[in-house]
Structure formats: structure tokens, C-alpha cells
Specification:
The complex is a heterodimer.
Chain A lengths: L20 E12 L2 E12 L3 E5 L6 H8 L7 E6 L2 E2 L4 H10 E4 L11 H11 L5 H14 L15 H13 L5 E5 L7 H16 L3 E5 L3 H7 L2 E6 L2 E6 L1 H6 L4 H11 L2
Parallel strand pairs in A: 3-8, 3-9, 6-7, 7-8
Antiparallel strand pairs in A: 1-2, 1-4, 4-5, 9-10
Helix pairs in contact in A: 3-4, 3-5, 4-5, 5-6
Chain B lengths: L28 H8 L4 H26 L8 H8 L8 H5 L1 H6 L9 H18 L8 H16 L4 H20 L4 H22 L20 H28 L3 H15 L3 H11 L12 H27 L2 H9 L4 H31 L11 H11 L7 H30 L4
Helix pairs in contact in B: 6-7, 7-8, 8-9, 10-11, 10-13, 10-15, 10-16, 11-13, 12-13, 13-15, 14-15, 15-17, 16-17
Classes of the chains: A alpha/beta, B mainly alpha.
The structure holds adenosine-5'-triphosphate and magnesium ion (MG).
Magnesium ion binds next to α1 of chain A.
GO molecular function, one term (chain B): transmembrane transporter activity
Keywords (chain B): Cell membrane, Membrane, Transmembrane, Transmembrane helix, Transport
Organism (chain B): Shimia haliotis
Chain lengths: ~260, ~425
């Protein structure tokens, strides 16, 4: 895994953690029916933080980050994103969603629209950006993820790695303040993993606040300033990557790390 | 493995294999015949049997068709000329052509009006069917219902004008307020439209239709294939949007809306269309204010529309269910609100999946318009069963008349089905 990682030096000049709170989760609980998926989650994310969430399958990682933009509803506790509290108020939810970008494991591009239309759709309809300007923004971000030449193709004509980069560009076109990633590389072949991770690293270098669910421990080591380990719906341990990998405190973390790294 | 291969497991390609054209396909009629019609004994037997069947059918029908007469003025005269030989009396079609197409009461000197409406219809539906045409043509589409109404029914131009104004004002209201508050815009627009129609309607003077530019033609004078086309087009274009709305309603999180949609769909699907038509012809007037004489045509349109909307709703629901959940989530996560997500992301894809099903319902609906002959409306079949077959001249010309009706419907329905296949191919975008 780590050998796939970027060989270049990471530019840390802009990667500083601000003092402003971007996401504040307090005593949050969630159930699916009677199944307690998330148990008493407390998490504060500051502006510019890059957080990697790790944990075994079914531990509730996806559910946690999906609660942040209300793709899932929590039943108790508070979530405050960018100063806005997540309640049932649809206005607030749409507002938060337009400030929080999300990338999915299976990309979820809109297959009936071209790459460019995928990227301009939300700016035009949600931000009311004029079409021309939205297209310029979209081309800017497509260049950034290094596929401007695909702008007029349809998603079905692109490789997995390219699709995921389009998905990242699509989120960036909304100029979000926070980006959520749910296993963005786990549906990809190794070669494509690298191109997507490189894109994410670049994003981190520009100071984006990021929450990534990922099994790419190399990425966590290089980019994250905090690693969170979840098990059975609970945050079991969190620490700086160096400490987290070299000196895990909890037994469950040790077991997980030995399974994922130690072969 | 041979000995000398033992140390050659490692393999390195030393040269790049050049690109070469695919092998040429063998062609030729004889080869095609042999491969497709006579490839095995069973296949050969089936081929021979099929050919024999085709021969028998043609042998018995071709003389009848080719020997047919087109110019006699009655069945008796036709029989006399045929003098015992096989032959069709197609002259019933030429002699009663106007009745078959326009019904028997539509004033002859006004036939140009439905004809013009028909031509306008071709222009109006073109931009809906073919997206590559300039979008400006949609203005024709939007105006068509009002123009066509005025052309076909005639009478005062105020009626379609007020209807049009109602739609425009309601649309403008929705544009202005619906963006921020969908419910306010939507229900406000409905209230405004109803208000304009009732106020405007009461302002039309009593005898406005009497000396109108186009003489008024009452609904009961409509008939023939024209009536089938009018019912088919009106009901299809009304029931598609209604069906979509019902399908979305059935998916809704709001229990009341969902409940209403489910009950409506299940009820209508469980009732034969013919009973709904009887309800339309005799009973529906109970639901309208006692002094309002709601036109039979309108009542029938309502019933057929409701009926096919329920079916279309189920087809669209299937399309909605076939979309991966990720599409909804991606639309949500970008901050699109519900109407935007539906209009821009979900429906374009769901409707594309639903095209074959919707076309199926549309074809069925068009053919079912002939059922109105049962409630004594004189559509194509009603004309044939009633005035034409009952006349002394043409009593007994079944094959020619019903064959003609079948052929007319076949042409239209086959056209619709070809269009839908073309559309599916066109919308296919490599996924
Ligand atoms: N819609 C749902 N209804 C009921 N249970 C669900 C639902 N979605 C997820 N779960 C359950 O909730 C738990 C947490 O799911 P989640 O997807 O958050 O896990 P995860 O940590 O992301 O796992 P993975 O690494 O496999 O993606 C799992 O046990 C799962 O079975
Ligand atoms: Mg997951």
C-alpha cells in the first residue's frame, strides 16, 4: 500500500490547522432500527485539518461521515457544521450540503450528463452561477485533476480513476469548505489509486479541511494530522499518525493495525 | 511439457505485434440462406412449412385485394359488377371517406379546420419528439392546444384566450415564487389559474359564439378517426405528466400524499376502462355543479387520462426504482433541492428506462379510444358500426371497413413504436 504513495515531497507550507471549528459533533448517537450503529460520538474538526478515519468493516465509518451532510439522520446529540446546526430544517441542510463536498466509493457521476455538465450542474442550479462562468470554473478544476480533455465525454467512457477525479472536481466546483471522502480508492485498480491519491494530496496541500474514510495507511501517514480509529460504532482511539501507527494504545487498534499492515 | 520448454516459462515479448484488419466476412445470398434457413433438417422443415403458410395466406387474400372495386356507389352495385368472382368492395372507403375521417355531423365546409389543426399538430409535436430541432419551436407546441381547440370547436376566441392567459399568469407566478418556496408557487399558481378562468369565463357574453369568425361545432358532432386522434393525443399528453406526478407521489415521504397516490393507482388499475367510460357518460355529471353541463368529450378525456396515468405511474415507478441509490445521494450531497434533483438527475434517467413501458401504455391508450363507440360516440369504429353498416347501401361490408380501421391504427401505432426504438438508441450513452 505505502509503496503506491507519492514519491514527491509534500509541500506543507499551507497545511496548517486553523483555530476555527469546522465541524463539531457532540454526544451523537444513531440507530438503524434497534441496531446502535454510532455510539456517543464526540469529534471536533478544525479548519484545515486532514482527518483519516480507519476501522474494520461495519464499524460505522461511512455512517459517521454521511451524518455530517445529512445523507443519514442522527437520532440524538448535536452536529454543527460551519456554524450551522443540523436539524430537520431543509434550508439548513441544503446550505450545509452546498458547503460540504462528498466523494463516494462508486463515484456516483451522473451518467446522462457529460463530464462538463456534471461539474457545472450544481454551481448553476444551487449557486446560480452564470453558465459561462460555471464552465470556466469547471474547466479550471478539471485541469487541476488533469483531465480537461475529457470534458465532453460521458462518465461511462472514462476509467474508474478518471471518474473518481471527475467526482472530486465536481465537488470542488461548489468551492466547498470541507471535503468528505468515503473510501474513494477502494473500487479502483492500484494504478488508478495513485492518481486519485495524488489529487487528494494536492487538495490537502492547499489547506482543504478533509475527512477521509480510507484503508490507504500510506496516505494517512503522509497527509493526515489526525487518525481516528473506529470499532463497533465507537471512536476507540485518535492520535497523530506517527503515534497512532508506531505506538497504538488500545488493543483493538493494535489488532487492526497488525491485520492491515503486518503481513 | 517438453524438456526444451522447461526453461522458457519466463517470456518477454521481443517485438510489438502490428495491428491487422479483422478477417473478411464471407458473404453471399446462398451462404446466408444456407446458414439461416436450411442449416439443419428441422430448420429446413420449418422453413418449408412457413413458406407454405405464407403462400396460403397470400393466395386467399391477394385476389380479393387486387380484384377490389373502388368506384361503385353501393354494395349491390359492387356485387353486380363482381358477378360472383372474388373481390373487395373498397368503394365503401372512397364513398364514405369523409364520414370515416370526420364523422357524419361535422360541417363539410369546415373540414379545413381539423385539417389545419392536424398540420399544426405535426409542427407542434416535432420539437417534443426530436430534441435536435430548435427549442424556439416549443412556442408552437405551447400554443397548439389553444389554437387547435379554437379551430376544431370554433365559437368565440375568448374561451381559448382566457384559458391561455390563465396558464401564462399561473406560470409566471410559479416562476417568481416557486423557486424559493415550491409549495407556495405551486398551489398559488393553481388558485390564480382557477380564479382567472372563472372570472374570465363569466365575462364572456352570452351569444359570443353565435356570430364568431369560426362557426361553433358542438362536441357531439365530432367523430371518425379525427375523434380517435384527438382523444389519443390529448389523453397521452395529459397522462404522462400526471403519471410522473403519481409515481413521485407514491415515493414520497409524506404519508398522506403517498396514501392518496397508492389508493388512486390501485383503484384505477383494478377497474376496467369500459366501466370508467360508462361512468363518464352517465354518472360523472353528479360530481360537477348541477348547472354546469360538462361536455361528454371532456368527461371521456378525464376518464381515459386517469386510467392511463395510473399505468404510466407504475411504469415510471419501475424506472425510479431501477436507479442506483447513489444517484439520489450524489444529487443530495451537491445541495440540489428535491425539485431540482428530480428534474435534472432522477427523472431524465428514470424516464429513459421507462420509455418502452410508456410507449406501450400510449399505444394501448390510442387503441382503447375506440371503446368510446360503446358509449355512443361516433369515432372510427363507432362510425363503421353505426351509420355506415346500418345504411342500406353498405349493409354487410365488414372486412373492408374493419380492415381499413385496423390498417389506420396499425400505421399510427407502428410509427410510435419505431419512434420509441429510435429514441432509445439515441439516448444510449455508453453506460
Ligand atoms: N441502511 C441501513 N440499514 C440497516 N443497517 C445498516 C444500513 N446501512 C448500514 N448498516 C449497518 O451499519 C453498520 C455500519 O455500516 P457502515 O457502512 O457505516 O460501515 P463501514 O464502517 O463504512 O464499513 P465498510 O468499511 O465496510 O464500508 C453495518 O453493520 C451495517 O450493516
Ligand atoms: Mg463504508
Amino acid at each position: 500500500m505505502s509503496e503506491l504513495m507519492s514519491d514527491r515531497e509534500i509541500d506543507r507550507s499551507k497545511m496548517h490547522v486553523g483555530s476555527e471549528v469546522a465541524i463539531q459533533i457532540a454526544n451523537m448517537n444513531k440507530w438503524y432500527g434497534s441496531f446502535h450503529v454510532l455510539r456517543d460520538i464526540n469529534l471536533t474538526v478544525h479548519e484545515g485539518e486532514r482527518i483519516v478515519i480507519a476501522g474494520p468493516s461495519g464499524s460505522g465509518k461511512s455512517t459517521l461521515i454521511r451524518c455530517i451532510n445529512r445523507l443519514e439522520e442522527h437520532q440524538s446529540g448535536d452536529i454543527v457544521v460551519d456554524g450551522i446546526e443540523l436539524t430537520n430544517d431543509l434550508k439548513n441542510i441544503d446550505k450545509i450540503r452546498s458547503e460540504v463536498g462528498m466523494c463516494f466509493q462508486h463515484f456516483n457521476l451522473f451518467p446522462h450528463l457529460t463530464i462538463l455538465e456534471n461539474c457545472t450542474l450544481a454551481p448553476i442550479w444551487v449557486r446560480k452561477t452564470p453558465k459561462k462562468e460555471a464552465e470556466e470554473i469547471a474547466m479550471h478544476f478539471l485541469e487541476k485533476v488533469k483531465i480537461p480533455e475529457q470534458a465532453d465525454k460521458y462518465p461511462g467512457q472514462l476509467s474508474g480513476g478518471q471518474q473518481q477525479r471527475v467526482a472530486i472536481a465536481r465537488s470542488l466546483c461548489m468551492k466547498p469548505r470541507i471535503m468528505l471522502f468515503d473510501e474513494p480508492t477502494s473500487a479502483l485498480d492500484p494504478e488508478m489509486i495513485k492518481e486519485v491519491l495524488d489529487t487528494m494530496i494536492e487538495l490537502a496541500e492547499e489547506g482543504m479541511t478533509m475527512l477521509c474514510v480510507t484503508h490507504e495507511m500510506g496516505f494517512a501517514r503522509q497527509v493526515a494530522n489526525r487518525v481516528i480509529f473506529m470499532d463497533q460504532g465507537q471512536i476507540v482511539e485518535q492520535n497523530e499518525p506517527e503515534e497512532f501507527f508506531n505506538n497504538p494504545k488500545s488493543e483493538r487498534t493494535q489488532l487492526f493495525l497488525s491485520q492491515i499492515l503486518g503481513h | 511439457m517438453a524438456d526444451q520448454d522447461n526453461n522458457s516459462i519466463a517470456f518477454v515479448a521481443t517485438e510489438v505485434i502490428p495491428e491487422s484488419p479483422p478477417p473478411a466476412r464471407e458473404t453471399g445470398v446462398v451462404k446466408w440462406l444456407r446458414e439461416n434457413l436450411f442449416s439443419s433438417v428441422t430448420n429446413t422443415i420449418l422453413t418449408v412449412l412457413a413458406l407454405a403458410l405464407i403462400y396460403l395466406v397470400l393466395k386467399s387474400t391477394m385476389p380479393w385485394i387486387l380484384n377490389g372495386l373502388w368506384t361503385t356507389s353501393s354494395l349491390a352495385e359492387c356485387r353486380e359488377i363482381l358477378d360472383g368472382t372474388t373481390g373487395a368492395c373498397f368503394s365503401v372507403l372512397t364513398e364514405r371517406w369523409n364520414q370515416l375521417i370526420y364523422g357524419f355531423k361535422y360541417p363539410v365546409e369546415e373540414y379545413w379546420r381539423p385539417n389545419l389543426a392536424f398540420l399544426l399538430m405535426l409542427v407542434a409535436i416535432a420539437p417534443v419528439l426530436f430534441f435536435d430541432l430548435p427549442r424556439k419551436l416549443l412556442i408552437v407546441t405551447a400554443l397548439f392546444p389553444f389554437v387547435a381547440f379554437w379551430l376544431i370547436w370554433g365559437g368565440t376566441i375568448l374561451a381559448p384566450l382566457i384559458a391561455l392567459i390563465g396558464f401564462i399568469v399561473a406560470g409566471a407566478f410559479f416562476q417568481k415564487f416557486g423557486r424559493n418556496n415550491f409549495a407556495l408557487g405551486f398551489f398559488g399558481a393553481i388558485v390564480i389559474a382557477l380564479a382567472i378562468w372563472s372570472i374570465g369565463g363569466s365575462m364572456i357574453p352570452e351569444g359570443a359564439s353565435e356570430n364568431a369568425l369560426l362557426p361553433a361545432v358542438p362536441s357531439r358532432d365530432l367523430g371518425g378517426f379525427m375523434l380517435n386522434m384527438m382523444l389519443g393525443l390529448t389523453c397521452v399528453s395529459l397522462s404522462v405528466p400526471l403519471g410522473i406526478a403519481l409515481a413521485l407521489g407514491r415515493q414520497s415521504n409524506m404519508p398522506l400524499i403517498k396514501g392518496i397516490c397508492v389508493v388512486f393507482i390501485e383503484f384505477v388499475r383494478g377497474v376496467p376502462l369500459i366501466t370508467l367510460l360508462f361512468v363518464a357518460s352517465v354518472m360523472l355529471s353528479y360530481f360537477f355543479p348541477p348547472d354546469a353541463t360538462v361536455d361528454l368529450f371532456l368527461r371521456v378525456v378525464i376518464m381515459i387520462t386517469l386510467f392511463s396515468a395510473a399505468y404510466i405511474a407504475e411504469v415510471v415507478r419501475g424506472g425510479l426504482a431501477a436507479l442506483p441509490k447513489g444517484q439520489y445521494e450524489a444529487a443530495d450531497s451537491l445541495g440540489l433541492d428535491y425539485p431540482q434533483a428530480m428534474r435534472l438527475i432522477i427523472l431524465p434517467q428514470a424516464l429513459k428506462i421507462s420509455i418502452p413501458g410508456i410507449v406501450n401504455v400510449a399505444v394501448g391508450l390510442f387503441k382503447d379510444t375506440t371503446l368510446v363507440s360503446v358509449i355512443s360516440m361516433f369515432d372510427l369504429v363507432g362510425m363503421i358500426r353505426g351509420p355506415i353498416l346500418a345504411s342500406t347501401e353498405w349493409n354487410g361490408v365488414y372486412w373492408e371497413l374493419f380492415g381499413f380501421a385496423a390498417a389506420l391504427f396499425f400505421v399510427v401505432c407502428y410509427g410510435i413504436s419505431q419512434y420509441s426504438q429510435w429514441l432509445e438508441r439515441k439516448l444510449h450513452k455508453g453506460h
